[in-house]
C-alpha cells in the first residue's frame, strides 16, 4: 500500500477544509460521486467519540466518519441518498448505519440499503498517526 | 382436452444423467404429487436437501403439481387452469427431481426398500414418503356403477383436474344437475354448475349444510343464501338409487322422490388413499398411522397430508398438510432432527357458494363454563359466533362476514389475550368510519401512510417469499413510520399468506437485537448488573453483537431500571436524545422550552422572542401541547440558545412524558369544577422528563367539557365536581384515535398524582418498546390495570411508587446539563444542513 497522499501539511486550497472543519455545505439526495483516490486527513481520532459519527470536509467532499466501539473505522458520504439526512447523526452497529431521519439502514460493506433506497457511497478510511485519513 | 397441466413444451427433453453408482446422495422417494407431496419436496429443497437427496416423485395424475383448492374457481370459470399450476414439469427438471407423472405406485417392499410402479418399474429408496391424499367417496347406491366397476356415464367425483375438465365439458351438453353432498365441495360444485346456467338440486344426508363446520343455526342461514342463488336444497335425505341405462337420468331419494338430471356430481366426502399402504403391510386405521415425526411403523417410511392419521386425527385441509411437510423436511434433512408435529388447530376460510365462511376450532360450547357469543342476522345472511374457554378462544364461526377473521385466527392460533368486551371479537365498536375487511380492500389502497406502502405491495412481498410479518415490514418498510398501521399490516400479511405465516420469534423481543421479552430482559439486566447499553449487548446479544436499531430502546429501559445509576453512552442514544432537541427534515432542530400546564409569563415570552430574533429562528409556532416551538435551529446554536432562554427542556423530542395540557379550570372559567391548571402544573412537575416506552401526553380539564382534550390523552384527568377527579388512561388523538378508559375516580389532586404515578410506572415496566398506552391498556385489559393499580391486588403498589420516586429524583434538566459542558467531543457540531436554509419561509 502506498503512503497516503496527505494534504495536511500545505495550506488548504478549498475554503473550509482546514483540518477538522465541519461539513456545512448544502447537500442533495442521491449517491455521491465515486472516489477519485485522493487521501485527506480530516480530523484527529479523538474528534469522533466511540460509537458515534462526525461530519467533515475532505477536499471538497463532505464525509461522515464513524468510529465503532469495536475500534473499526468507516466513512460514508455525509448526506443520506434518500432525503439528504445527516448520516453522521445516525446510529451504528458492526453491520449497518441507520439514518436518523427515516431510519433507512446502509451496509458498511458496500453501502447498499437494507430498505430499498439507493446506496450510500462508502470511502476507505484509516488511522495514520492519530489522524483519520479518508480516501475520496 | 387432454393437455397436461404444467407440462413441458413439445420437443423439449431432459437428459437424465443416471450416474447411480457415482451418486452418493440418499434416495428420497415421494409417492403422491399433490399439495402435500410437492410441498414436502419444496421444503426439503429449501433446507438444502437437493445436495443430500436424489428425489423421485410419483404422481398418479399426468400433470405437474396444481392447487387442488382452486378447482372450484376453475369449474366456475373464474380461474384458468394455468393459474392453478404450482410446480410445472420444468420446475422438477430444473431442480433435478425425477417426476414420474402418471405412474401409480402399486406396492412397497419395505424389507427390500423398493417401490413398484404401475408401469412395471421398480425404484429403490432410502426414505419413502407417502403423500397419497384422498379420493372421492361414492356412497353405495343402486346403479351408480356399471358392471365393470366404473361409474355410470354422467356421474362424476369432484377431486381432480381431469374430473373438473369433464364437468366443464358436461355443462355444455347437460341442463339439470344433482349434486350429492352439502359440504364444502358439494356447495362449491353446485354453485359453479348453477353459474353455467344449469338447474341444480343439492342433496345432503344431514339435517343442515356444512354440518362438519357449522352449527344448525348457521347452517340454516347458509341454506337460505344458497337457495337465494336458485339452487334447490334437499336436506336430511339419502339418495338410494341412480337411474339411467347407459347414462344417468335421475336419482331416487329414500323418501321416494325422484330428481331428474343428466349430470350427477358426488361430493359426499373423501377417504384417505391407503390402498398401497395396506397392501404393503403398514399400519392403517382410518389413515396411515404416523407418530409425531410423521413416521409410519416402518422407520424409513413416512406419511403426510390427508392420507396420514396422527394421534387419531385425519386432516382434510391444506394447512396441516403443510405443517406435516415442514416438520418432515426438518427431520429428513437433519435441519432439526428432533422436530415434531403435535397436531393442528384447524382454521378454514373460504367462499362457499358465494358466501364467505371462516371456521376454527369448535362451533358450539362443550362445557358449562364455556362462554358462547352469537350474533345472528338471518336477513343479511350473517351468523357470527365465538366459543371462549378459560379466557382463550377455542372456536369461531363466521358466516357472511369474515372481516374479523385475521384477528380471530391469531387469537385462536396463539392463544393471545381477548378483549374484556367479548363482542369486540366480532364487531368493531368504534365510532369511526366502517372498517373495511382486508380482503375487500383494493390492492392500490395505501396501508402505511408514512412510507406510502399499498396493500398490493404487501401482498407482493408475501408472494416474493417473505414468510413473516417482520420480513414483510423490513422489505416494504410498512409500519416502520408512526407504527399505527402495524396491526393492519399484520392482518393483510396473514390474509395474503392464507394464514401460512411463521410467527416472528423477534415479535416478542423487547428490541430486535436481544432475544428476550421485556420481563426476562429486565430480570437479566438486574441479575447481571448491566448498567450500560454496551454491557447489555456484550452479555445478552447473540455473539455479543451490537444492533443499531436496539440501542434506543435499551437506553430507555436501562434508564427506567437504574435511574441515576445508569451508565450513559451517547452513541446508544438517538440523535434527538444526544442533543435534546427534535431533528427536522432539513437537519435542523426544534427547541421547545418547558411551559408547565401551558402557563407562561410576559417575561418568559419576552425572552423567547429575544432568543428567536437573536438566532434568526425561521419559525415560531404554538404547539398542540400548549407550548412554543422554535423551529429550524442549527445544532451548533443549541447550547447558547438554552443558556439565553434560561428555561428547562420541554422534552418535546424524547420517548418520555412530554407535556400536560390544561384548561383554565376554576380560577377563571365560569364552568370549572376543579383547579385543573394547578393540577396540570403539579403533574408536569412530577413527571417531567420521565422516560417511558413511548411518549406520554397528559391533560387535565376542569369539567367534562374537555377543553384540553383529556379524554384522548395517555393520562387524562377530568374534574367532575365535589372535589372528585376522573383519571382516564389509554386515550389517543394521533394516527389512532381512542377515548381513554376510566381507571378510577378519586377524591383529591394528591390522589390523582399518586394514581397517575402508579399507572405510569406500571406502563414503564410492562409496555413493549414504542407501545403507546392506547395499545398497552387494551392489551393488558382495563380490569387488570384496575386490580393492579387501583386496588393493589397484587401488592405491587409500594414497589411501583418507590420505583417512580427514584426516577423522579433522578430528574435533571438536560439543557442545563449539556449546555455548559458537551457530553462528548463535537456533541453540537454540525452534521451538515441538508437543504438551503431556511427552507421554511420566515413568517
What can you see in these coordinates?
The complex is a heterodimer of chains A (136) and B (843). Chain A has no helices and 10 strands. Chain A has strands at 39-44, 53-58, 61-67, 73-77, 91-92, 96-98, 105-107, 122-123, 125-128, 131-135. In chain A, the strands form 3 sheets. Chain A has a 4-stranded antiparallel beta sheet, with no helix packed on it. In chain A, strands 1-10-9 form a 3-stranded antiparallel beta sheet, with no helix packed on it. Chain A has a 3-stranded antiparallel beta sheet with strand order 5-6-7, with no helix packed on it. The model of chain A is unreliable at 1-16 (pLDDT under 50). Helix content of chain B is 30%, strand content 21%. Chain B has 26 helices and 40 strands. In chain B, strands 5-2-1-9-21 form a 5-stranded parallel beta sheet. In chain B, strand 28 and strand 29 (453-454) form a beta hairpin. Chain B starts with 25 loop residues before the first strand and ends in a 23-residue tail after the last helix. The chains are: A mainly beta (136), B alpha/beta (843). The interface between A and B is large, with 47 and 38 residues.
Amino acid at each position: 500500500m502506498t503512503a497516503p497522499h496527505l494534504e495536511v501539511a500545505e495550506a488548504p486550497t478549498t475554503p473550509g477544509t482546514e483540518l477538522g472543519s465541519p461539513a456545512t455545505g448544502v447537500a442533495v439526495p442521491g449517491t455521491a460521486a465515486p472516489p477519485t483516490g485522493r487521501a485527506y486527513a480530516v480530523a484527529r481520532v479523538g474528534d469522533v467519540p466511540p460509537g458515534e459519527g462526525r461530519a467533515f470536509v475532505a477536499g471538497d467532499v463532505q464525509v461522515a466518519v464513524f468510529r465503532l466501539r469495536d475500534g473499526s473505522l468507516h466513512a460514508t458520504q455525509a448526506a443520506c441518498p434518500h432525503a439528504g439526512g445527516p448520516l453522521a447523526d445516525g446510529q451504528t452497529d458492526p453491520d449497518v448505519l441507520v439514518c436518523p431521519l427515516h431510519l433507512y439502514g446502509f451496509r458498511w460493506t458496500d453501502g447498499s440499503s437494507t430498505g430499498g433506497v439507493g446506496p450510500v457511497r462508502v470511502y476507505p478510511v484509516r488511522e495514520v498517526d492519530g489522524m483519520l485519513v479518508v480516501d475520496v | 382436452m387432454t393437455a397436461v397441466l404444467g407440462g413441458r413444451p413439445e420437443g423439449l427433453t431432459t437428459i437424465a444423467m443416471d450416474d447411480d453408482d457415482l451418486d452418493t446422495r440418499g434416495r428420497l422417494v415421494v409417492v403422491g404429487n399433490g399439495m402435500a407431496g410437492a410441498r414436502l419436496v419444496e421444503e426439503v429443497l429449501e433446507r438444502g436437501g437437493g445436495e443430500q437427496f436424489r428425489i423421485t416423485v410419483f404422481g398418479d395424475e399426468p400433470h405437474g403439481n396444481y392447487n387442488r383448492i382452486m378447482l372450484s374457481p376453475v369449474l366456475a370459470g373464474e380461474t384458468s387452469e394455468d393459474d392453478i399450476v404450482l410446480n410445472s414439469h420444468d420446475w422438477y427438471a430444473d431442480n433435478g427431481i425425477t417426476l414420474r407423472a402418471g405412474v401409480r405406485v402399486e406396492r412397497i417392499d419395505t424389507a427390500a426398500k423398493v417401490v413398484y410402479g404401475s408401469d412395471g418399474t421398480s425404484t429403490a429408496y432410502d426414505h419413502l414418503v407417502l403423500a397419497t391424499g384422498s379420493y372421492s367417496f361414492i356412497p353405495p347406491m343402486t346403479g351408480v356403477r356399471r358392471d365393470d366397476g366404473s361409474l355410470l356415464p354422467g356421474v362424476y367425483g369432484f377431486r381432480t383436474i381431469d374430473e373438473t375438465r369433464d364437468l366443464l365439458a358436461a355443462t355444455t351438453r347437460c341442463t339439470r344437475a344433482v349434486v350429492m353432498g352439502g359440504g364444502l365441495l358439494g356447495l362449491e360444485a353446485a354453485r359453479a354448475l348453477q353459474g353455467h346456467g344449469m338447474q341444480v338440486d343439492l342433496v345432503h344426508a344431514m339435517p343442515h349444510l356444512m354440518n362438519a363446520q357449522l352449527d344448525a343455526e348457521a347452517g340454516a342461514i347458509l341454506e337460505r343464501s344458497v337457495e337465494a342463488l336458485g339452487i334447490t336444497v334437499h336436506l336430511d335425505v339419502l339418495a338410494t338409487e341412480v337411474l339411467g341405462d347407459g347414462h344417468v337420468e335421475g336419482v331416487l331419494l329414500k323418501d321416494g322422490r325422484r330428481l331428474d338430471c343428466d349430470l350427477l356430481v358426488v361430493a359426499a366426502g373423501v377417504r384417505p388413499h391407503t390402498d398401497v399402504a395396506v397392501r404393503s403391510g403398514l399400519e392403517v386405521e382410518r389413515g396411515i398411522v404416523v407418530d409425531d415425526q410423521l413416521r409410519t411403523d416402518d422407520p424409513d417410511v413416512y406419511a403426510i397430508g390427508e392420507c396420514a392419521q396422527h394421534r387419531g386425527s385425519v386432516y382434510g385441509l391444506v394447512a396441516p398438510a403443510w405443517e406435516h411437510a415442514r416438520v418432515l423436511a426438518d427431520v429428513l434433512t437433519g435441519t432439526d432432527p428432533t422436530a415434531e408435529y403435535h397436531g393442528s388447530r384447524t382454521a378454514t376460510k373460504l367462499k362457499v357458494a358465494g358466501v364467505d365462511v371462516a371456521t376454527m376450532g369448535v362451533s358450539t360450547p362443550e362445557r358449562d363454563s364455556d362462554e358462547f357469543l352469537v350474533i345472528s342476522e338471518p336477513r343479511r345472511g350473517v351468523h357470527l359466533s365465538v366459543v371462549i374457554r378459560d379466557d382463550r378462544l377455542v372456536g369461531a364461526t363466521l358466516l357472511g362476514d369474515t372481516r374479523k377473521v385475521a384477528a380471530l385466527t391469531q387469537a385462536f392460533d396463539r392463544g393471545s389475550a381477548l378483549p374484556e368486551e367479548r363482542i369486540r371479537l366480532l364487531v368493531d365498536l368504534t365510532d369511526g368510519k366502517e372498517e373495511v375487511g382486508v380482503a375487500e380492500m383494493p390492492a392500490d389502497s395505501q396501508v402505511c401512510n408514512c412510507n406510502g406502502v399499498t396493500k398490493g405491495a404487501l401482498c407482493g412481498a408475501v408472494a416474493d417469499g417473505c414468510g413473516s410479518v417482520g420480513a414483510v415490514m423490513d422489505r416494504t418498510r410498512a409500519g416502520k413510520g408512526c407504527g399505527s398501521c402495524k396491526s393492519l399490516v399484520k392482518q393483510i400479511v396473514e390474509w395474503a399468506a392464507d394464514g401460512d405465516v411463521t410467527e416472528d420469534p423477534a415479535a416478542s423481543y423487547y428490541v430486535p437485537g436481544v432475544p428476550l421479552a421485556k420481563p426476562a430482559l429486565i430480570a437479566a439486566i438486574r441479575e447481571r448488573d448491566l448498567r450500560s447499553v454496551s454491557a447489555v449487548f456484550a452479555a445478552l446479544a447473540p455473539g455479543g453483537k451490537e444492533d443499531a436499531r436496539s440501542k434506543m430502546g435499551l437506553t430507555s429501559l436501562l434508564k427506567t431500571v437504574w435511574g441515576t445509576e445508569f451508565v450513559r453512552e451517547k452513541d446508544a442514544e438517538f440523535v434527538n436524545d444526544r442533543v435534546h432537541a427534535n431533528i427536522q427534515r432539513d437537519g435542523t432542530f426544534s427547541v421547545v422550552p418547558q411551559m408547565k400546564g401551558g402557563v407562561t409569563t410576559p417575561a418568559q415570552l419576552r425572552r423567547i422572542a429575544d432568543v428567536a430574533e437573536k438566532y434568526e429562528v425561521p419559525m415560531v409556532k404554538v404547539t398542540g401541547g400548549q407550548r412554543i416551538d422554535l423551529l429550524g435551529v442549527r445544532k451548533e446554536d443549541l447550547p447558547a440558545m438554552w443558556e439565553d432562554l434560561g428555561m428547562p427542556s420541554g422534552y418535546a423530542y424524547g420517548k418520555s412524558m412530554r407535556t400536560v395540557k390544561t384548561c383554565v379550570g376554576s380560577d377563571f372559567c365560569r364552568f370549572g369544577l376543579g383547579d385543573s391548571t394547578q393540577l396540570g402544573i403539579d403533574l408536569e412537575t412530577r413527571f417531567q422528563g420521565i422516560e417511558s416506552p413511548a411518549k406520554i401526553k397528559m391533560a387535565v380539564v376542569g369539567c367534562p367539557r374537555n377543553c384540553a382534550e383529556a379524554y384522548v390523552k395517555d393520562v387524562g384527568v377530568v374534574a367532575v365536581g365535589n372535589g372528585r377527579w376522573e383519571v382516564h388512561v389509554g386515550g389517543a388523538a394521533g394516527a389512532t384515535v381512542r377515548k381513554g378508559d376510566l381507571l378510577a375516580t378519586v377524591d383529591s389532586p394528591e390522589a390523582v398524582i399518586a394514581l397517575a404515578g402508579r399507572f405510569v410506572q406500571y406502563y414503564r415496566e410492562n409496555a413493549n418498546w414504542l407501545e403507546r398506552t392506547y395499545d398497552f391498556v387494551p392489551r393488558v385489559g382495563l380490569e387488570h390495570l384496575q386490580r393492579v393499580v387501583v386496588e393493589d391486588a397484587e401488592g405491587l403498589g409500594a414497589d411501583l411508587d418507590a420505583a417512580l420516586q427514584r426516577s423522579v429524583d433522578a430528574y435533571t434538566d438536560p439543557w442545563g446539563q449539556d449546555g455548559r459542558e458537551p457530553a462528548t467531543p463535537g456533541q453540537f457540531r454540525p452534521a451538515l444542513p441538508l437543504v438551503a436554509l431556511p427552507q421554511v419561509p420566515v413568517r
